[in-house]
TrEMBL record:
Location of the protein in the cell: Nucleus inner membrane
Taxon lineage: Eukaryota, Metazoa, Chordata, Craniata, Vertebrata
PANTHER family per the UniProt record, alphabetical: TRANSMEMBRANE PROTEIN 120 HOMOLOG, TRANSMEMBRANE PROTEIN INDUCED BY TUMOR NECROSIS FACTOR ALPHA
Protein name: Transmembrane protein 120A
Organism: Eptatretus burgeri
Entry GO CC: nuclear inner membrane
Length: 297
């Protein structure tokens, strides 16, 4: 009887040992899985944090892209979306023109530091770059922007970029005030054109004579003939000021022995702008005069 009890006890003990070994194996597997899970959790948390940083950087980039392109898809499908983007484009031009005018006026009256001049030139480079991008989107969506006025903004981008790289030398200071005066006049002309052209475009669109994506420009076009011819003297004065800048810079280049490359490059660029602006405006003017004479005869 005692031997039987001992045998049963030993058997139960062996069973318990086997069960305990099984539990130890399960526990060890649990510890291994827990360690693997903790490692994976740390790796995933690190990836999530990295993605959050990437999304934050992307959000900043999208804010800048939205500032450049406006709040839109590149392809606009509805007439309302196209017109809204055109209005946003016009407002962008107006706000930046006012900003450049105030900054240039402040530089002209109270400041002579090259560092602040650089800020103005950088703003102008960004402004003209943004205009070319937005105008390309308008053309893609059906706007009939005249070829020269788009090219004019590309040339202006290059010109302001060259001005941005011009070091603070004697030649720079010699041309600085003339350049700032020209920028002030240009801002006033652009504001004047925006004010009158936008009103004229609104009236012509209401009469069905202009399209919804027609925009204000820095020059003179055929649709401005009625009511906006008073702008012609202002425009021609600005064109000849560009020629004056070209001549001044050429004389400065000869004076400094062509040592600063920015001087002759800007001289040629101003001459190119004068030729393009003057010839385009004159061609439109002569065309309208011929049409007027034909109607009379």
């Amino acid at each position: 009887m005692a031997d039987r009890s001992l045998t049963e006890t030993l058997s139960e003990w062996n069973d318990l040992q086997k069960g305990n070994e099984g539990l130890q194996q399960v526990f060890q597997k649990y510890l291994d899985d827990l360690q693997t899970t903790s490692y994976k959790q740390s790796e995933i948390s690190s990836n999530i944090a990295r993605q959050h940083r990437h999304l934050a950087d992307l959000a900043k980039s999208l804010k800048y892209l939205s500032l450049v392109l406006g709040n839109l898809n590149v392809t606009l499908f509805s007439k309302q979306a196209k017109f809204s983007y055109k209005v946003e484009y016009e407002n962008f031009k107006l706000y930046l023109t006012c900003t450049c005018f105030l900054l240039t006026l402040a530089l002209r009256l109270w400041n002579s530091y090259k560092t602040i001049d650089t800020l103005l030139n950088f703003l102008l480079v960004w402004y003209y770059c943004t205009l070319t991008i937005r105008e390309s989107i308008l053309v893609l969506n059906g706007s009939r922007i005249k070829g020269w006025w788009v090219t004019h903004h590309y040339i202006s981008t290059f010109l302001t970029g060259v001005m941005l790289t011009w070091p603070d030398s004697i030649m720079y200071q010699k041309f600085r005030l003339q350049y700032l005066d020209f920028c002030i006049y240009l801002s006033l002309v652009q504001f004047l054109q925006y004010y009158y052209q936008s009103g004229s475009l609104y009236r012509l669109r209401a009469l069905g004579q202009r399209r919804s994506l027609d925009i204000t420009v820095e020059g003179f076009q055929s649709w401005m003939w009625r009511g906006l011819t008073f702008l012609l003297p202002v425009l021609f004065f600005g064109h000849f000021w560009q020629l004056y800048n070209a001549i001044t810079l050429y004389e400065m280049a000869c004076e400094c022995g062509w040592q600063e490359w920015q001087v002759p490059v800007q001289s040629f660029t101003y001459l190119l702008l004068f030729v393009g602006n003057f010839s385009t405006t004159l061609r439109v003017l002569l065309q309208k005069l011929r049409e007027k004479r034909q109607k009379i005869s």
